[in-house]
Design brief:
α1 runs antiparallel to α2, α2 packs antiparallel against α4 and α4 packs antiparallel against α5. This protein starts with a helix and ends in a 5-residue tail after the last helix. It has one domain. The chain is mostly helical and about 130 residues long. The radius of gyration is 16 Å and the shape is elongated. The chain is built from five helices and no strands. Bound molecules: protoporphyrin IX containing FE (HEM) (2 copies). One protoporphyrin IX containing FE binds next to α2 and α5.
Length: about 130
């Protein structure tokens, strides 16, 4: 029998993956525009849209799909909100920082620290809530 937490985990997994593929789309478009305009100074933004947005989020979604009890747990929800609120702030902040606004470094650092906190909760979540069948 599927518990409410597991059902929520399965729904959350789909949201993780759908958001991830939007980051992939944004990341490859960003890469193409960056390459066409020879603005390689923005490579870290492109790299992390793809790696923290697409790769990390799609992996989280696939893992939470396989283990929905982890995906639908409170830790899973905290992971979701910390990652998904902080990542856009970090990427937009980094973009403008590299575009000549060094004062944004603190914002980027703070948003990055929130992402790291989310990843810490992800790790704890998998150790606490991952079971062979959900
Ligand atoms: C059509 C799609 C893509 C285009 C046009 C593109 C373009 C680029 C360009 C122009 C650079 C800068 C290279 C340099 O500065 O020498 C770059 C770097 C990078 N790209 Fe992409 N990229 C694409 C897709 C991806 C994807 C899907 C990922 C990851 C999943 C990715 C990850 C990276 C990383 C990590 C770097 C930094 C590499 C380094 O600093 O050595 N890219 N990309
Ligand atoms: C909040 C988390 C993260 C922070 C704060 C962070 C920070 C950084 C910084 C400061 C650099 C050097 C950029 C430069 O050369 O100017 C870098 C490079 C890189 N990071 Fe991350 N990173 C994070 C997460 C990740 C993850 C999850 C991956 C892979 C899945 C990754 C892969 C890379 C790669 C491939 C490079 C070299 C490409 C580049 O120069 O942009 N990072 N990262």
């Amino acid at each position: 029998m599927t518990s409410d937490i597991e059902a929520r985990g399965t729904r959350m997994a789909q949201i993780w993956i759908k958001l991830a593929v939007l980051y992939l789309l944004a990341g490859v478009i960003f890469g193409l525009v960056m390459a066409s305009n020879h603005h390689f100074e923005f490579a870290p933004v492109h790299a992390h849209i793809n790696l923290l947005g697409w790769a990390s989020m799609a992996l989280a979604g696939l893992i939470y799909h396989q283990f929905p009890r982890a995906g639908g747990s409170r830790l899973g929800l905290w992971h979701f909100w910390l990652h998904n609120l902080a990542l856009p702030v970090a990427m937009v902040g980094l973009f403008f920082m590299l575009a000549g606004h060094p004062q944004l470094e603190k914002l980027v650092a703070a948003a990055s620290a929130v992402i790291v906190l989310g990843v810490l909760l992800f790790a704890i979540n998998l150790f606490v809530n991952m079971r062979p069948h959900g």
